[in-house]
Amino acid sequence: MTLYENLAIRLREHIELGFYKPGDKLPSVRQLAKEHGVSISTVQEAYRQLEQELLVEARPKSGYFVSAQKQDNLPSISRPPQRPLEVSQWEEVLNMLMIRSRTDAVQLQHAMPDMKAPTLKPLLKDLTKQDPEIGLGYSDIRGTEELRTQLCRLAVASGCQLHPDDLVITSGCQEALSVCLRAVTEPGDIIAIESPSFYGSMQAIKAANLKAMEIPTHPGTGISLEALELALDQWPIKAIFVTPTCNNPIGYTMPEDKKEQLYRLAQSYDITIIEDDIYGDISFQFPRPKTIKSFDTDGRVLLCSSFSKSIAPGMRVGWIAPGRYRDKVTHIKYVSSSMCPVMPQLAVAKFIRLGGYAKHIRQMRQNYEKQRDQLLKAIKTYFPKDTRVSFPDGSFILWVELNQHIDSMKLMKKCREHGVGFAPGPLFSATGKYRNCFRLNYSEQSSEKREWAIKSLGEVINTFQPQES
C-alpha cells in the first residue's frame, strides 16, 4: 500500500468516526506533510482520493473541508431480465444518429470530446504534413509499427506490458469491439453485458447474431459479480463484455480488486472477457486506473480502445490487444476492412512521441472534471428534486434517472422542439428498458449553452410531473 493510500485511510477513519464534522476545515497540506513525514505531493494525492470519494472538497485559497454530504442520489442499481435476449432498438439508435437538428440547438446526446482544444493544434498541423508516398500506400495489416510502439508506451500506465506485435490497429473502437465478438463467438452464443450498456456494444452483439444477458450493475462499482456468477451457472455464456473504467453510460469505475476478481471469475469458468477501455485515459483518478487486461496471464482478455474519445472520433484510430486470439482477430480485421488509413496513425504516433498527447490529456481531464461539476450543479438547480444522477470520475457523460412515470422517448421529442437533444435510456438496453433515464454530454458546448439547455430541459421535464392536488 502506498503512502498516500495509508494517509487517505487515516483521514477517512477520522471523518467517519466524527473527529471531523461535515463542513469542518481539514489540516493544511503542509501541516499533514510535516506531521506524517511525507511529501506535499503525497498529501495532495491523499486528499484527491478522498475528493473522488466525495468525502472532502477543495475550496480555492481556503484549503480542504469535509463535504457537507456524500453523493447519495446515484441512479438505482439496474435489475434487467434474468434471461438472454435478442437485442432490439436498432431503429431508435439509427433515428438518433441521423437527427439533423436546427443550427441553434444544443446537442447533448452524442459522446463527443472537445475537439476545439488548443492542445490538439500540433496534431492537426502535422496531419497536413504527412508524406503522400508513405501515407497513400498499403501498410502492415496490423497497423503501423510506429503507432503500435507508442501504444505500448501508453499501456504501461494502465498496468499492461505489451509488445507492438501484441496489437492490431482498427478503424475506431466500434470496429475493435465487433471484430472481437466475431473472433470469440458463433451465431446464437450468449454474451454477458452490463446493464445499462453502450448502444454501440448492443448493436455489435445484434450484428453478430448473438444474445445479450444483461447483468445487474451498481452505479458506483459496476457489474454485480454475484449476479454474473449465478448467470454463468445457469446459462452457457461465451464471453463477458464490460466497460469497467469510466463506464458509458453510467460513469462508474470498477475498483481495482473487483477487476481482478472479475478476471479470476472468467478464469474459473474458462470464458473470455472483452474489455472496452475507450475512456480510460480521461479518468480523473491518479494514477490512471488499471485495466482488467493488466491482470491477464493467459491471454483471455481482449482489450479494445481508441482515440475517438480522447482526441476526436474522425481520426478513426482504434486498437485491440487480443491476447491468445491475435491470429483470429488479425484475419477477421483483414477480411473486414484490410488495413487502416496510414496518415492518421503516423500523426497520432508522433503526437504521442513528442509529448503532445500527454499534455492534451492532462488539460482535458481538468476541463471535463470542471464541466461535470457545472452540469451537476445545473441539474440540481433545474431538475425535479427526485432526480437521480451519476457521478462519473472520468469521461464527459452523465446518466440521469427521472421519476418512473416520465418516458424519455416522449421527452426527447418534446425537448427537440425546444432545441435540446439527449440520448434516451431505452437505447442502452437490449429490450428498451430505462425509459425514465437518459444520457447527457458535457464536453462540446460552452458552459452558458449547457446551463441554458439544462434549464430548458428541466422546464420541459416539470411539465411531465403529476399535478399536485
From TrEMBL:
Coiled coil: none annotated. GO terms for molecular function: DNA binding; DNA-binding transcription factor activity; pyridoxal phosphate binding; transaminase activity. SMART domains: HTH_GNTR (SM00345). Its EC number is 2.6.1.57. It comes from the Bacteria. The keyword Chloroplast does not apply. Residues 1-69 form the HTH gntR-type domain. InterPro entries: Aminotransferase_I/II_large (IPR004839), HTH_trans_reg/aminotransferase (IPR051446), PyrdxlP-dep_Trfase (IPR015424), PyrdxlP-dep_Trfase_major (IPR015421), PyrdxlP-dep_Trfase_small (IPR015422), Tscrpt_reg_HTH_GntR (IPR000524), WH-like_DNA-bd_sf (IPR036388), WH_DNA-bd_sf (IPR036390). The keyword Transmembrane helix does not apply. Keywords: Aminotransferase, DNA-binding, Pyridoxal phosphate, Transcription, Transcription regulation, Transferase. In the C-terminal section; belongs to the class-I pyridoxal-phosphate-dependent aminotransferase family. This is Transcriptional regulator, GntR family with aminotransferase domain. It comes from Marinomonas posidonica (strain CECT 7376 / NCIMB 14433 / IVIA-Po-181).
